[in-house]
Automatic annotation (TrEMBL):
E.C. number: 3.1.4.-
Gene3D superfamilies: 3.60.21.10
Keywords: Metal-binding
Pfam families xref list: Metallophos_2
The protein's name in its UniProt record: Phosphoesterase
Membership in a protein family: Belongs to the metallophosphoesterase superfamily. YfcE family.
Stretches that traverse the bilayer: none
Keyword Metal-binding: yes
An annotated Gene Ontology molecular function: metal ion binding
Cofactor(s) it depends on: a divalent metal cation
A Gene Ontology term for the protein's cellular component: cytoplasm
Length: 237
């Protein structure tokens, strides 16, 4: 079985379509998405329509939840997107589940299996992503005895093995690179072979200048800078 995994599009349709075009060249049996679809200024409505059209197996991210449910201190981008969505787009976003199990082997979540706003493998120390200790990661995975655990949230592409051989994969961010040194769109392909599950972390060039201009035209120069260079810190957005 061969599965494409994408996460954290953050309203960047240019990046999403580039990744989908790349996936179309691969012999995959399924494509899944791990949330934070719309929270970004470039083209969130286009992203919403694309996911509605595709109907991919998906889970919501923390920002998807903030858009649909609100919170005491709204992030400006979440409030912006909430005010843009039509009834059909709102209904779709509200219907996306928090977690999902695919064929009993592959578990989908955004942050960790228990919390969409907690990081699984990495954390931010200052403005730099640092890997969690092994004991922390093992504890977050405890009780979820599936061959593969898929997560997003941190925008850091990573694949690791737990002590019992289970695979944990973060595909990175399709549409918003954090401290990665490249504006490329990121996703992953996982494949079940005779010896077990393999991971391929992929980077796809796309018209990031167009995505940055869309953000700039909407009055978000810091987002435009992030999309242009790929050196963004989440704390500056």
């Amino acid at each position: 079985m061969r599965i494409a995994v994408l996460s954290d599009v953050h309203g960047n349709l240019e990046a999403l379509d580039a990744v989908l075009d790349d996936i179309a060249l691969e012999n995959v049996e399924a494509t899944v998405a791990l949330g934070d679809f719309l929270s970004g200024p470039s083209n969130p409505l286009g992203v919403a329509d694309r996911f509605i059209e595709l109907g991919l197996p998906s889970v919501r991210g923390n920002h998807d939840r903030y858009i649909t449910d609100g919170r005491e201190k709204d992030w400006h981008i979440d409030a912006l997107v909430r005010g843009m969505l039509d009834a059909r787009q709102q209904q779709w976003l509200a219907s996306v589940p928090a977690t999902l199990l695919l064929d009993e082997d592959v578990f989908l979540c955004h942050g960790t299996p228990r919390d969409d706003n907690t990081s699984f493998m990495d954390t931010m120390v200052g403005t730099v992503a640092t890997m969690h200790p092994r004991d922390y990661i093992e504890a977050e995975a405890a009780g979820f005895d599936h061959d593969v655990l898929l997560c997003g949230h941190t925008h850091v592409p990573r694949s690791l093995r737990l002590a019992d051989g289970r695979l944990v994969v973060n595909p990175g961010s399709v549409g918003l690179p954090f401290e990665i040194g490249s504006p490329d769109a990121r996703y992953a392909i996982i494949e079940k072979r005779r010896a077990g599950w393999n991971t391929e972390l992929r980077a796809v060039a796309y018209d990031h200048v167009a995505a940055a201009k869309q953000a700039l035209d909407k009055g978000y120069p810091v987002w435009a800078e992030a999309l242009t260079w790929g050196w963004a810190s989440p704390r500056g957005l």
